Amino acid sequence: MSATSPRAPLFSVEKLRSDFFPWVLAVVTGLDYFDNATFSFFTSYIAGGINASPDELVWASSAYAIAAVLGILQQQWWVERFGYRRYVAGCMLLYSAGAVAAALCESSIELAFARGFQGYFIGPMMGTCRILIQMSFTPQQRPAATRAFLILIVLSSAFAPLIGGQLVAHFDWRALFACTAPVGMLFAVLAMLALPDSGNRLPEERGSAHFWPYIIFAFAQGALQIVMQQVRFQLFSASPGLILLTVAGIVALAWFAYHQWHHPTPLVRLHALCEKVFQVGLVLYMFYYYVSTVFSYLISRFLESGLGYPVENTGQLVGITSLISASALFIYLRYAKLLPRKKWIIVPGFAVAAFAAAWMTRMSPGVGEAALIVPLLLRGLLLLFIVLPVANLTFRIFAIEEFTHGYRLKNIVRQLTISFATASVIIVEQHRQALHQTRLAEFVNPYNPAFQGSLAALTNSFAAGGRSPSEAHSLAVVEISRTVMQQASFLTSLDGFYFLIGIAICGGIFAAWQKQID
Q1: Is residue 296 part of a domain?
Q2: Which residue, 250, 266, 282, sits at the end of a domain?
Q3: pTM score
């Protein structure tokens, strides 16, 4: 009688680890993308909730980026001591604690600390999960795991405005952070069940802590971020403090790079930067993350402040068009291999970004939702046109050890670029908003017949509704002020899209010029 092999129970830990391991990696990465997309899209609501201007909120974005980069640098140190399973689960739990803290914040300073705490633990997750895919699966199994990874990245980015819009409309800005806390705790449990207990090493095999290099790098990052924030308030050439801080930051960064380059067991190996293909790939990543972050911010501001759309409608419009665009991922995964020259995808991707931004500049103040669908659909295709082919080219040259360090470098670039993009677009917005408000306010004066006619018409309209003459006049003035603010926001958003066109064109020219990508 032949013996039958024992079958693993349907809900056993072994079954969970074999079947759901790639999906746990995917959902953890998806939470990272959801968090970033939500914060970028609803920046103005978060700023209003803590009674801060959007430029004050830049400190929260900078704190998140600095902490995320520090977390990425120290990622391997934690893994060698606790293993991937405990590291990912612990990061998810502590990220959830940070989400609760962010939801309870009352000021921009408190939010900066809370976001920094979150960034340290969620920032390294994309790289950690992608490295685990590369390490844990055979070349035959890897495509399926990578597909799950990409699907959750795309879906999380698409669902962020959709879910966030509903949360803000029915609750308030705090719900944007509060909703991720239980999700993070759930993912921590899944990580403990599904991830392998790998990566931890014996004490004598572990890398050193690099305490002073780590502190010096943190100082360099902080110094340069402070300079970047303050240049909009002070003239750089006339501020010795900013010049000194810049020099100190650059010198500290150069020393850190020199130390890591020559150290036998560095925090992050920089030798991947010698590869021309990797250098080009990093620059293209920077262009994409910059364009994507600025586009997301401008779309939100344009729809809500420029056109006066309710936040719920804005989230639905952007979220649904993003989901429709996300369906193209399956077409890409099936047919991209038929186009061997990835440059034929990347360069048109930047052209699509410029075209979508140019389309947005042609919008009128009374535009309907139907006219916005095509440019929003095109925006959703940028990930497929730029990031996926760039990733295919950038990392195919690396063996597993170099892949690990190269991917961590790429994630450092991602965090810094997103932070810089958020800061720079807010600076541009504040400047253009002030300019347009000043110009429009010049027309709001008693000597302008058009203003007098509008004021009289509005006053009569409110008076006809039963208001007293003085109350009707006050309401008319308030309505004109609101209209001026909305028109200034509308024109500011258009200026932002013109700025975005220039960045996308520069990215396309750079990609077309490169001979390292084929």
Answers
A1: yes
A2: 266
A3: 0.85
